Predict the structure.
Amino acid sequence: MTEKPLIFLDRVNKVYSSGEEEIFALREITVEVEEGEFVAIMGSSGSGKSTMMNLLGCLDKPTKGDYYLDKQAVAEATEDELALIRNKKIGFVFQNFNLLPKLSALENVELPLLYSGMATEERRQKAENALEAVGLSHRKQNKPTELSGGQQQRVSIARALVNEPVILLADEPTGALDSRTTTEIMEIFQELHQAGKTIMMVTHEAEIAEYAERLILFRDGMIVDDNKR
Amino acid sequence: MNFTESLLLSLRSLKANKLRSFLTTLGIMIGVAAVIALVALGQGTSSRITASIESLGSNLLIVTPGAVPPDQRERAEELNRLTLEDSAALSRLESIDAVAPQVRRQGQVVWHNENWTTVVEGTSSEYIEVRNSVVDEGRFFNRLEARRQQNVVVLGATVAEKFFESNSKGIGQVIEINQTPFTVIGILEKQGNQGYANQDDRVIIPITTAMDRLFQIQEINAIYLSARSADLMDQAHEEVEKILKVQRNVSSTENTYFQISSQSQILSTAEEIGKLMTGLLAGIAAISLFVGGIGIMNIMLVSVTERTREIGIRKAIGATRSAIMQQFIIEAVTLSLIGGLMGIFFGLTLSKIIDYFTPLSTLISITPILYAFFFSFLVGLIFGVYPASKASALDPIEALRHQ
């Protein structure tokens, strides 16, 4: 028996039915991603790349086919198991940060640990370390609204990493940032990649995709190109 | 996530919408306060009535005219009219200790320039014994004075207060009742303000004086009897019934339409009514608690909608269905419990205010407080479940897309 890769999608289909008609958001997708890869996913809107991200992030399950994440079969998991996988194995970075506005930066970073049931002291310590890693120790008590876009995205990267997930999923992470901040954020991603993190990132900007070492191109729910540099 | 953290989390989001949370809490607060205050009022009134019945005297039997069915109307006069002869006949019974017949009319009492409308009660000299009354100043009229139809009067405490600076100054004064002069020979001790009528607002004169001189009437309103002992109550009851029939030449199988009630009967009836009234008041109050619960549900539904995105984020980073459920239920229960606590405080205050500033009396006991608090918890739980399950069932993808 061969060792399975970190991410293994085996002939995955995602079908939405609207009335009589069936719409294939994803059609027979097979992808393998090894540990430590930095993958960019591109494609025009409606190409299936968002659906792909939702599946990878265990927010959704395939209609047909299998998905193994870190040797765990996602397609058969229950809703609570999915929540656990998201909590332990996946870190999300969203285009619009998705921080909770009422909580401080530190509390936002603590949130995943809260749901994994970690004791208060340990949780606080880990969250502070994660904030320090993105260079935001000095702003930990600030609310998201008191931070710049770049700072907010760094908080959300800290939040994504605090549970030491096996993959980092980024959905247009620089879509809401100016070019200078974009460079800052992408440098963080590169550092993480060099440190051995597995990163999958959806983007529609070619220059952002340049930071990745592998590019998967989607069109009409299918992979039309898969290039390693 | 442990319970303390969930609690802190919910307190935080309640604090984020202070006014809204307060207004929602107000609904529960009013409900709980209403339950506590109204139950206290019901129990207070009930215990006051019970006390006043108990003060009537033990071993007491009361004979009053009952209702006559339509087909017996022409015989009503002999079937249910009470007379002084009945009273005299009853007093000869072995089982009966004392007899106090009673007539009651409204009368105008005048002393110098003051006048007062009150109840004029005519009775026998045995009244004091039968009715458990105590003379505070002077004395009650005796058998001789009663037989001679003398114009002597014993005043209730309220009437005495109305006319005289002190009770002792009243003795020997002459007052007019319906323009007839009467000498005040005694003043009764205060019996307290009792449930249905003020027992102290009346004057008492010999029954013969009342019937022949003052009101010119033949029938009497009631006969109060005291049995020789508590064990003789049943026997006395039977004998009274028998004598009343003998007095009317009615055979023992025929009905006489009198009501013979004992103090214990009246007491248990009053207690029943008291419980019923308390239950009714509690029921009315419970409705407002229910309405408060609907308020909680309403605001929680609004909150779930407003926080769709937050729920999406929490789910994306690993919150399970039950974690989200727990968060919203704790919020709802926290709201209702805060309302419950404020309601207890407010309800107790209200009960005290009613007691001090109105003629009504309230009786606070721990049971309705515990019930009200428990129900406010239950209301939060029940009305929180639906919004919470709605929140927990949200699809994270949809929720994250929500603006």
